Amino acid sequence: MIESRCKICGRPTIAKFNVDGQNQTEIEAVQAAVDKFLPMLTCNPCYDAHADRQNSGQVILDTCISLANSSGKRREELALKSTRILAAAIKTYANAIGRQYRAEAKYDEKAFVALLIDRPEKCSETLAQWRNEVRRQTYANTTP
């Protein structure tokens, strides 16, 4: 059992390893793996938030790529279908970054969806700016 801190939130975490009855070479291999991966250790809530953010971010990105690669009538049809998909993915993304930074990720759903549909080529940049703004607000509220 090894005690560490979550790399995202800093909470104490515990990693459990079973090395009973193994030879010295196997114990050294486990120790090398622990030394390598210990700095990457996260608590379950932070990992879940990170995974949700990654998954919903990928849905948003894939949808925006489809929109960016379409034109004319096909783009209009795709924009109508994408509205609901983007709204759900943005909600999941907002919840994930809110959990990750322990803050509320405020946004206007209709405006955000409209922005992504109008400028799908700026999708990654838009999401990164939003996430960074939530992080800045979180740290601004916690510093004296």
Distance between the termini: 36 Å
| Beta-strand fraction estimate | 5-15%
Summarize the biggest pleated sheet. Answer: 2 strands, antiparallel
Q: How many strands appear in the DSSP assignment?
A: 2
Indicate the percent of residues in helices.
55-70%
Q: Spans of 5+ residues with little confidence (pLDDT < 50)? A: none
How many separate domains make up the residues?
Answer: 2
The chain-level structural class is mainly alpha
**C-alpha Rg (nearest Å):** 21 Å
The count of helical stretches stands at 5
User: Which oligomerization state do the chains in this entry correspond to?
Assistant: single chain
Rough shape? elongated
Strand order of the largest sheet: 1-2
**What's the helix-strand series?**
EEHHHHH
Mean pLDDT: 86
Would you summarize the structure shown here?
Helix content is 69%, strand content 6%. With 144 residues, the chain is mostly helical.
Structure, described:
With 144 residues, the chain is mostly helical. It has 2 domains: 2-40, no CATH class; 44-142, no CATH class. It contains 5 helices and 2 strands; from the N terminus they run ββααααα. It has helices spanning 24-37, 44-68, 72-101, 109-118, 123-142; strands at 2-5, 12-15. Strands 1-2 form a two-stranded antiparallel ribbon. A hairpin with a 6-residue loop joins β1 (2-5) and β2. The longest helix is centred in the middle third of the chain and has 30 residues, at 72-101. The protein is elongated and about 65 Å long. The model has no long low-confidence stretch (mean pLDDT 86).
